[in-house]
Amino acid sequence: ALKQLTLRIKDNMQELKKYSEETKEINLEINRKVIALSGLLQVSSFISEGEEISEILDLSMEKMVEIGDTNLAFLLLQEGEVLLLKSAYGTGAERLLNKKFKLVENNLFAKLTREAKSFLLDNNTLKNRMVLEFEQEFGVKDAFIAPLFIHGRIAGLVGVGNNKRFAYRSDEFKLIDIFIKQIDIALENDILMHKVKNLEVKDNLTSLYNESFVRIRLDEEIKRAIIYQRPCAFVIFGIDGYEELCQNLSLPEIELILKRIAVIIRESISDIDKAAKFGEKEFAIVLPEKNKKQAQNIGETIKERIEYLFKNDPDKCKRITVSVGVAENPIDGVNGAELIAKALSSLSNT
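Predicted structure:
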């Protein structure tokens, strides 16, 4: 009876050990899922906070490596006739970054892009030349690659893989799919933000027009001037010693100087003239119906007003001086780019 009890206790201990090992595996699996879900939340937070698209993509790749036994995650974006490996994380990531795959060539990525289909590499996959080249170049034995879509059109591919012959499960595919959807949203938001930025015409700091608007407006005014055989001038102002100014003053002080200069320029021009914040340290004015002589007079008057405003500042660093560059159509150019180049050139020579 004692022997039977001892054997029973031994069996129970072995069974308990078995359950303990199973519980340990379950806990590990739970921890993996918690980590993956945490990664999804981090990426979502980056998107909602408007972080740089490159940072969102890099974080997404980093977090996708935490799914299952993945040791490589990568993202390819379509740029013209090539797929550029834009972001990667894990084994061999540095070697793969910025690699290009031509869409016109017979490679796996070109095929997947054309067909807009997902691809699963496992023991059941037919190993043709394209698949073998992919395995060798990316160093993976199991992989999953899915298309990225923006506005219903394919924009690239996202892939995960490992070199351990670890087959992905259905729940892991769901996590990968959510990451891909987040990347879709991030890329689409980035495109929309760039479109909005291009539509904006005012500089946020000075409330003058921005550089992109004044470039377009200058081209329009030059076309009008050519048709009606009238002059059109362009004036640019550059703050002297701006780099040294930035070293000696705080950002709020620099911004205040830029705002004060903007006020003087705005008050010194007519309603048909267009003034802009042009680059980091320059201001510009488009002067329809003004020839070069008139533009030079306006430029010198504004220069004097700016320098008079700052000349008695107790802080010598803030005693601002400016240089003036002037160009006129058609003497100095027949389009906006030529007039701007000429004005900037004369600015550097003053």
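Summary: The chain has a mean pLDDT of 88.
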